[in-house]
Amino acid sequence: MRQRLPPAGSATRSLTDLGQPRLDWCSLAQGMGVPAAKATTVSELQAGMEKALQTPGPFLIEALL
Predict the structure, then answer these.
(1) Please, which residues have CB within 8 angstroms of residue 61's CB and are 6 or more apart in sequence?
(2) What 8-state DSSP symbol labels residue 62?
(3) Domain residue spans in the chain?
(4) Cα(65)–Cα(54) distance, integer angstroms
(5) pTM listed for this prediction
(6) Does residue 17 surpass a pLDDT of 80?
(7) Which burial class, exposed, middle or buried, applies to 20 when counting CB atoms under 10 A from its CB (0-12, 13-18, 19+)?
(8) Residue 60's closest CA among 24, 20, 22?
(9) Which residue of 28, 37, 42, 61 has the fewest CB atoms within a 10 Å radius of its CB?
């Protein structure tokens, strides 16, 4: 018989929360040698996609919804 685990507490939930600390994905990518762009609007996303297609290799676009 499988033992039921108690509900997760706030400390347990914090271990899997991707919101804290807030990560700067563009800085992380650039620190690893990957060019990156942040998009908060459709036009910024379009510009990032165009730049990504013109750039050889990987390119990160952080799309903030």
Answers:
(1) 36, 37, 38, 39, 45, 48, 49, 52
(2) E
(3) 24-63
(4) 24
(5) 0.70
(6) no
(7) exposed
(8) 24
(9) 42
